[in-house]
Amino acid sequence: MIELDAAEVTAWSPDPAGGPDRVVRLLGPVTLRLTERRVAVVGANGSGKSTLARLLNGLVLPSAGAVRVDGLDTAADGRAVRQRVGFVFTDPDAQIVMPTPLEDVALSLRRTVPDARERASRALDVLTRFGLAQRAHVSVHALSGGQRQLLALAAVLATEPAVLVCDEPTTLLDLRWRTHVDALLASLAQQVVVVTHDLEAAARAERVLVVDDGQVVADDAPGPALARYRELMGARAAEAVP
Ligand SMILES: Nc1ncnc2c1ncn2[C@@H]1O[C@H](COP(=O)(O)OP(=O)(O)OP(=O)(O)O)[C@@H](O)[C@H]1O
Ligand SMILES: [Mg+2]
Questions:
Q1: At the fourth CATH level, which superfamily is domain 2-240?
Q2: pLDDT at 240 over 80
Q3: pLDDT tens for each residue of 167-181
Q4: pLDDT at 110 over 80
Q5: 93 Cβ partners below 8 Å, 6+ apart?
Q6: Residues contacting residue 58 through CB under 8 Å, at least 6 positions apart
Q7: Which amino acid residue places its CA nearest to atom 5 of ligand 1?
Q8: Cα–Cα distance measured from residue 117 to residue 169, given in angstroms and rounded to the nearest whole number
Q9: Distance from CA of residue 70 to its chain's centroid?
Q10: Cα three-residue angle 59-63-67, rounded to 5 degrees
């Protein structure tokens, strides 16, 4: 279970008037218990979705309040939390570090599979599950954007995280690859929290959080939550018209 207790994120920001830097609040306070297997997070650009997602695996630590995953505090038990919570970035290039897909997945397995031959064989099994076995030894730069996204996901899932957090995992993908990644995420046994601008994908979640201006302004089943989000965005669009 993911728990946020009055979690807030603040950052130092330059004062546009030229004064000393000021503390600005990027998110919160947010109090939530996430127990559903499929949770979607939607919201406008810059609303705080990635900040919220990054809180869940300790990539961002709360400036106040607390975030716990299965009872582990992200600030006090960061290492254990990162082993439980896999994080997939929007841009796969941010997380692919090895020259070939096989080596990249094998790197993820280094802690759990000490023997190098066994590790390579397990990495190939993982790539096979993701339809990438034929590309196991090519340069990662020769993969398509969709294949790189799948590889990033494969490398994270190879570690068998209890929870998977994905920050816009299909934003860069065409319809074919988006459908493929969506189906893959849907097939997973673990809890998945997905930040997305794809409202059709969000509609398939069990619970949807709407983030606006650093606050969770709706937390509901997809129907009412997405209706609220559309209403909010409609009002913004109307404000923007001169
Ligand atoms: N370290 C930081 N220091 C200062 N401001 C930050 C920092 N990180 C994020 N922000 C600001 O916090 C706000 C929320 O950012 P965040 O990345 O969470 O938005 P988002 O909802 O994920 O947006 P998008 O849909 O564009 O990805 C933005 O205005 C961003 O510029
Ligand atoms: Mg973001």
A1: P-loop containing nucleotide triphosphate hydrolases (3.40.50.300)
A2: no
A3: 998 887 888 888 888
A4: yes
A5: 148
A6: 67, 74, 75, 78, 81, 82, 85
A7: 11
A8: 31
A9: 18
A10: 60
pLDDT beyond 70 at 13? yes
> Which residues sit with their C-beta closer than 6 Å to ligand 1?
11, 13, 26, 43, 45-51
Atom of ligand 1 nearest to the CA of 197: 25
Reported as a single tens digit per residue, the pLDDT across 203-237 is 999 999 999 999 999 999 999 999 999 999 988 88
- pTM for the complete prediction? 0.92
Of all protein residues, the one whose alpha carbon is nearest to atom 16 of ligand 1 is 48
Closest ligand 1 atom to residue 44 Cα is 25
Residue type, 197: H
For residue 45, the CA-to-ligand 1 centroid distance in Å is 8
Tell me the CA–centroid distance for residue 197 and ligand 1, in Å: 15
Ion ligand 2: residues, CB within 5 A, are 50
Q: Which atom of ligand 1 is nearest to the CA of 13?
A: 4
Half-sphere exposure of 121 toward its Cβ, with a 13 Å CA cutoff? 6
Question: Coil, strand or helix: which one is 190?
Answer: coil
- Atom 31, ligand 1: residue with shortest CA distance: 46
Q: Please tell me the distance between residue 214's alpha carbon and the centre of ligand 1 in angstroms.
A: 9
Spans of all domains in the chain:
2-240
Three-state secondary-structure class, residue 87: strand
